[in-house]
Design brief:
The complex is a heterodimer. Chain A is mainly β. Helix content of chain A is about 0%, strand content about 55%. Chain A has no helices and 11 strands. In chain A, the strands form 2 sheets. In chain A, strands 2, 4, 5, 9, 10 and 11 form a 6-stranded mixed β-sheet that branches. In chain A, a hairpin with a 4-residue loop joins strand 7 and strand 8. Chain A is globular and about 40 Å long. By secondary structure, chain B is mainly β. Helices cover about 0% and strands about 55% of the residues of chain B. In chain B, strands 2, 4, 5, 6, 9, 10 and 11 form a 7-stranded mixed β-sheet that branches. Chain B has a 4-stranded antiparallel β-sheet with strand order 1-3-8-7, with no helix packed on it. Chain B starts with a strand and ends with a strand. The chains are: A mainly beta, B mainly beta. Chains A and B meet through strand 4, strand 5 and strand 9 of A and strand 5, strand 9 and strand 10 of B.
């Protein structure tokens, strides 16, 4: 079993849709959770980071962490074609620097 | 803020040559930098963790004599692929940890270097 599971997609949605991207994990020690966006042939770009359980909102993006279920989500409201990219979840525990990544979900937003 | 650069962005070399890739944190000091490798449509594979002024820690299965890492300053780490072969062709990405944010442990990634070995 992988430490972090993420559906590779692709996930295809029409412009304006609400997108839900998810990851599950098995290590209960994970405390920090991050979402990165990666366009083709580019490095990952940090979108959101959260600590422990709860929600965090930034513009059209909302990150949600449910530690009891070991489940994290990224919601994108009013999705745009420019949101088409691969979204990677990543996490680690306090004091341990190595990030554990999901496989990434490819999102396609059609006009 | 939190910009990481990589140079070169693309390199093509002959089999048997060595290639050096630079990773720089432009507006923060990075006590720790990480080197990843990514195959097409695959996730990031951590190769090694590099702390300034000390030897890099390599992940299992990564040949440290082939992938030489040097972290000489708080803003620069280099990855040298020695005696490159076609199977080393890949997308190499570095990241830098912004230790100035305390426990946030946020990693910022460079734009990547595409290596093609002929």
């Amino acid at each position: 079993q992988k430490e972090v599971e993420q559906d590779p997609g692709p996930l295809s949605v029409p412009e304006g849709a609400i997108v839900s991207l998810n990851c599950t994990y098995s290590n209960s020690a994970f405390q920090y959770f991050m979402w990165y966006r990666q366009y083709s042939r580019k490095g990952p770009e940090l979108l959101m980071y959260t600590y422990s359980s709860g929600n965090k909102e930034d513009g059209r993006f909302t990150a949600q962490v449910d530690k009891s279920s070991k489940y994290i989500s990224l919601f994108i409201r009013d999705s745009q074609p420019s949101d088409s990219a691969t979204y990677l979840c990543a996490m680690n525990d306090l004091g341990f620097q190595k990030l554990v990544f999901g496989t990434g979900t490819r999102l396609l937003v059609s006009p | 803020g939190a910009v990481v650069s990589q140079h070169p962005s693309r390199v093509i070399c002959k089999s048997g040559t060595s290639v050096k890739i630079e990773c720089r944190s432009l507006d923060f000091q990075a006590t720790t930098m990480f080197w990843y490798r990514q195959f097409p449509k695959k996730s990031l594979m951590l190769m090694a963790t590099s702390n300034e002024g000390s030897k890099a820690t390599y992940e299992q299965g990564v040949e440290k004599d082939k992938f030489l890492i040097n972290h000489a300053s708080l803003t620069l780490s280099t990855l040298t692929v020695t005696s490159a072969h076609p199977e080393d062709s890949s997308f190499y990405i570095c990241s830098a940890r912004d230790g100035g944010q305390g426990f946030t442990d946020t990693q910022y990634f460079g734009p990547g270097t595409r290596l093609t070995v002929l």
